[in-house]
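Sorry to interrupt, but I need a hand with the structure work. Could you write out one complete protein record for me, on any chain you like? Could you add the entry underneath, on a fresh line?
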Amino acid sequence: MTEIHNLKKVSKDIRLDVKKLVQKLLKNSKTIPVYAKDPQELLVKLEKMIPQFTGQKILILAMSNGSFGGIYPGLVELARKHV
């Protein structure tokens, strides 16, 4: 998960607290959330994490209302390298 790209577009009273959500997921879920300040940092972190799951099925969920900083081609390449 990354921070909201354009904070001005989302009013503070409805804005998601990404760091807090990641902490809650770590505490209350079997999911391994990954926090990064931006999409490129997220790719770097995922590239370091994925090898520890060799031979296992993994799911990467990427949701955005835009291009998510151009991360999608990087995710596809990451998946291809670790299949």
About this structure: Helices lie at 18-28, 39-49, 71-81. The mean pLDDT is 85.
